[in-house]
Structures are given as C-alpha cells and as structure tokens.
Amino acid sequence: MLLLFTNTIIMYDFFSKALILDREPLGETDSYIHLLTAEYGKLSAKAKSLRKITSKLSSHLEPNSISLIRFVGKKGLHIADALKLHKKNYSWNILNLLKKTVPEWHRDINLWDNVLKGSVEEKRLLSHLGFNISFSSCYFCQIKNPEFFFLKDHYFVCRSCSSSFQIPEDDVVLIT
Question: pTM of this prediction?
C-alpha cells in the first residue's frame, strides 16, 4: 500500500484478490461494489462508469467472481482496474450473508481460504462468525433449531415467527 503525505492528504494504491459480493447502483452510471479480499477483509469501493455499455470493468466485477483488483483513492476507495480470474458458484444467500455480517477491514485468512476452496455454507459461516446454530433458539418464541438468521440485528428466527413478523426477505438468511 502506497501512502503519500502532502498537506494531510493520504493517497491509497494497492492490489488484492477479491470475491465480488454485490453491486449497487450509484447515480446514473456508477456502482458501489462490495467485496471480500484476502489481505483487507470486506471492503466497499466505488466503480466509476461501471453501468455504461462501453465499460471495460463491468464483466470483471460481477457478483460471484474472483478478481484481481487495483484500488486507489484519497477520499474513499475507488476501483481503478480489475481482472476476472474465475467464477464461483455461491448462492445469493451466502454472498448476502458475507456482505452483511463480515466486519469491514477485518482480515480473516481462514474465511478467505474457505471461500477459495468453495467450502462456505450458511451454518459453518455463521458458526465461524460467532453465531453457532447449535446453541441458538428463536429470538421471539425461544424454540430450538430456528430456520432463519436475521442479518440486520443478528438473531435467529423460526419459520412461524419470520412469517408473522414480516421480516424483509433481504434481511433473512435461510439456514440449510
């Protein structure tokens, strides 16, 4: 990582291999990319003009891709270059779980190794992050072996409570 100090402006420039977790539209043509890296943990970075039809970065920053990425920035993180290395077959559930539960800038080599091997599943990932299903019960009715994990507030929910409390689908992960 290159840091240049000139009148308290810090310039970042570094490379990392990353799993693309999600792309969110930002303005008319830009996107916000959520990714998991080996060296820096989960990051979020802006990609300029990603949604233009002539964008050369768009195909390299698709969710479920492992890409080599160059980050730059002085006011926030930006993606300058990307090269897709290969594609993974993770479900949207897993990508969403990684995006919403892994802390930003927290390096986790074991998690990254499991991502590369393709051995990430909901129960193991939740257990790795400190939410062990075997010790859990529904937050509302205390029934053992809940089927869902509520991402926003980090608690387990059973099937009947998840339907009666109208929890948004994006905020719930089905535990298989």
Answer: 0.86
In a domain, 114, yes or no: no
For the segment 9-36, what is each residue's pLDDT rounded down to a tens digit? 577 789 999 999 999 999 999 999 999 9
Residues 57, 133 within the same domain: no
3-23 burial, b at 16+ Cβ within 10 Å, e below that, comes to eeeeeeeeeeebebbbbbbbb
CA 105 distance to own-chain centroid: 11
Can you tell me which residue has the tokens 């990425």? 69
In a domain, 79, yes or no: yes
Strands (E), the chain: 5-6, 9-10, 12-26, 30-37, 41-47, 65-73, 78-87, 148-150, 155-157, 172-174
